[in-house]
Design a protein that fits this description.
single chain; alpha/beta; Rossmann fold; 6-stranded parallel beta sheet; 38% helix
Length: 262
C-alpha cells in the first residue's frame, strides 16, 4: 500500500514524519507536490491507495469522489480519499479529529480536553475546509455554532466586525485563519469574561495567532482561559485518518513525539 498528501504549499508538512512514526516505516507516504489539482489527482489514481488532502484542494477533491461519507456531506469538504472496490471514497478526518477531542479526551486527566459539560456555544473563525469541518463536528454534537469569516459570502456567516461580541459570548473559540486578524488585539478585559471558562483551539500550529505573549496577557485577565494549539488537532485527525487508510491503529505516542519535537 502507498499513500500521500496533496495540497499547496505542502513542502513543510509533518504528515510524512507522522505517518512513518505511526507505522514504523511500514508503508510509504509521499508529498505529491504540484499547484495543479487535476495533476495531483491523476497521480493519486495512477500510483496511490489513499491520499490526504489539504488546502486549497479540499472542496475540489470532494467533487471527484464516488462515495461521500456523512461527515463530508456535513462539512462540504474532504481531506482524505481512499480507493475502494466501490470507487473513490471521501472522508473528513478534520471532523473526526474534533469529535475525538470533544468526546474522547473528557475525563482523562493526562490530556487537556476543550469542553466541560456546561459549555455549548462555539465560535468558528474562518470558513474554509477546516472551518467547515469544525462547524459540522460541533453541530453534530449538539453545540450552538457561529461562523465569522473575512469574506461574508452567505448570510449565515458573520463579518469580522462581529468578532469581539461573538468572542465574548462563546464558550469555545476555534480559530482557523492562517493569519492574525487585527480584531484579536482589540479584545478588552470585558471580552475575556473574567470568571468564565473559555477555550481557544487554533488550527495553525506553525505560526499561531494566539501566541505565548497574547495568551499570557489573556490568562492574567481571566485565569480560566485555556489554549489548545493545533498540534493536538493535527494528532487527532492524523490518528483517525491513518486508521482509515490502513485498517490498522497507528502508534499515537510515536506520532505525538514527532509533533512535540517540532
Amino acid at each position: 500500500m502507498k499513500f500521500g498528501l496533496i495540497g499547496h504549499p505542502i513542502e513543510h508538512s509533518l504528515s510524512p514524519a507522522l505517518f512513518k512514526a505511526g507505522y514504523g516505516g511500514k508503508y510509504p507516504y509521499d508529498l505529491i507536490i504540484t499547484e495543479d489539482f487535476e495533476e495531483a489527482y491523476r497521480r493519486f489514481l495512477d500510483g496511490y491507495d489513499g491520499i490526504n488532502v489539504t488546502a486549497p484542494f479540499k472542496e475540489l477533491a470532494l467533487r471527484h469522489a464516488d462515495i461521500i461519507s456523512e461527515e463530508c456531506r456535513l462539512a462540504g469538504a474532504t481531506n482524505l480519499l481512499i480507493k475502494t472496490p466501490q470507487g473513490i471514497t471521501a472522508y473528513n478526518s478534520d471532523f473526526r479529529g474534533l469529535v475525538a477531542m470533544f468526546r474522547g479526551l473528557k475525563g482523562d486527566e493526562k490530556r487537556t480536553h476543550p469542553l466541560s459539560d456546561h459549555e455549548k456555544t462555539v465560535l468558528i473563525i474562518g470558513a474554509g475546509g477546516a472551518g467547515k469541518a469544525a462547524k459540522a463536528a460541533a453541530e453534530a454534537l449538539g453545540y450552538e455554532t457561529t461562523v465569522i469569516n473575512r469574506t461574508q459570502y452567505n448570510p449565515e456567516i458573520k463579518p469580522l466586525s462581529a468578532f469581539r461580541e461573538e468572542f465574548r459570548n462563546a464558550d469555545i473559540v476555534i480559530y482557523n485563519l492562517p493569519v492574525r486578524i487585527p480584531e484579536i488585539d482589540m479584545l478588552t478585559e470585558e471580552d475575556l469574561c473574567p470568571g468564565k471558562e473559555k477555550v481557544i483551539l487554533e488550527a495553525n500550529y506553525r505560526n499561531p495567532s494566539f501566541d505565548n505573549g497574547l495568551m499570557q496577557r489573556m490568562v492574567n485577565v481571566n485565569p480560566l482561559v485555556r489554549y489548545i494549539d493545533g498540534r493536538e488537532w493535527l494528532l487527532q485527525q492524523a490518528v483517525t485518518g491513518y486508521e482509515l487508510f490502513t485498517g490498522e491503529t497507528p502508534d499515537s505516542e510515536a506520532m505525538k513525539a514527532v509533533i512535540k519535537s517540532k
